[in-house]
Amino acid sequence: MKQPLALLAALLLSPALHALELKSADVHNSDDYPTVVAVKHLGQVLAKSSGGALTVKVFNKGALGSEKETVDQVKLGALAMTRVNLAQLTAMCPRTIVPSLPFLFRDTVHMRHVYDGPAGDEILKGCEHQGMVGLAIYDSGARSIYARKPVKTLADMKGLKIRVQQTDLWVAAMTALGANPSPMPIGEVYTGLKTGLIDAAENNVPSYEGFRHMEAAKFYTRTEHAMTPEGLFISKRIWDKLPADQQKQLREAAKASVTVERERWDAQEAKALAAAKAAGAQFIDVDREPFRQAVQPVWARFVNTPELQALVKSIQDTK
Ligand code: GTR
């Protein structure tokens, strides 16, 4: 009888028995997409550091719903984690308005300095009162406009039916550019472009290629109008139940995943650019200044509290 008892004791003490699997959502199709790889990496680091007590399972390809839907589930604690673009959160956590502003960053170096500094943490913390604890900010490059016809100047934006993320900020910004914006989840954009429901959309090159949008909208105009990053969040309801040592392990694993994501990002941009070109996409350079000027009223409308104004200033003052 000794052996079965010993086995039982070993099983009861095994961390795997008390393991908590954290499900994490992502909309990107490719298992190689930098954010997907980064959260998987986080899971591996965490499984090790927690002795198997915490694991992460990534459900990409929008399998758990649109970004908006996964955010709602995380707030309720029905889903543990989601990786979403911060622009999706502007109505909920006002601080996310700032990194979503058009033409905020001077360039990639500026953007990365900002997210590595105190502003990054401040933005992430701004969602806690909504039930979401921010774990990481990931690079998402620069977003540009792409369409079924070439957009070469601001005048070409007139009346363009363009898909935007589900945020009032970008409805206002595209309206200011003269376009006719239509907010919808990313999963509906391919069909929208193919059927002519929309003429255009905007995104970074890895998303343009990864969602195959270049098959329907082959003219990509380098407006580089936003550098809104990705955010990884865990439900506060779940976070609050974790013991302090596990919270620490999770924070450390998240930090390690940021490095992995950034390393992957640059390579993914180059790879996606080559793939989009091979599929027939045409890349157009553009004078950005008229676009930048046209969206200035949007800044005044959305950066409307002293807190947001201070955050904008701290970002502009970052070298
Ligand atoms: C991508 C981003 C996604 C999603 C998408 C969109 O760049 O990684 O999280 O927000 O854009 O436009 O909906």
Structure, described:
The chain is 45% helix and 18% strand. The protein starts with a helix and ends with a helix. The chain has 14 helices and eleven strands. The strands form three sheets. It has a five-stranded mixed β-sheet with strand order 2-1-3-10-4, with helices on both faces. Strands 8-5-9-11 form a four-stranded mixed β-sheet. Helix 2 runs antiparallel to helix 11. The protein is globular and about 60 Å long. The chain is an alpha/beta fold. The longest helix is centred in the last third of the chain and has 35 residues, at 244-278. The model has no long low-confidence stretch (mean pLDDT 95). Beta-D-galactopyranuronic acid (GTR) binds next to strand 3.
Shape: globular
Structural class, by secondary structure, is alpha/beta
Q: How are helices and strands ordered from N to C?
A: HEHEHEHHHEEEHEHEHEEHHEHHH
Number of helices: 14
Query: What does the radius of gyration come to?
Result: 21 Å
Task: Output mean pLDDT.
Answer: 95
Describe the strand arrangement of the main beta sheet, using strand numbers: 2-1-3-10-4
Low-confidence stretches: none
Q: How many beta strands in the DSSP annotation? A: 11
Q: Helical content, roughly?
A: 40-55%
Bound molecules: beta-D-galactopyranuronic acid
Cα end-to-end separation:
70 Å
Describe the biggest sheet?
5 strands, mixed
Proportion of beta-strand residues: 15-25%
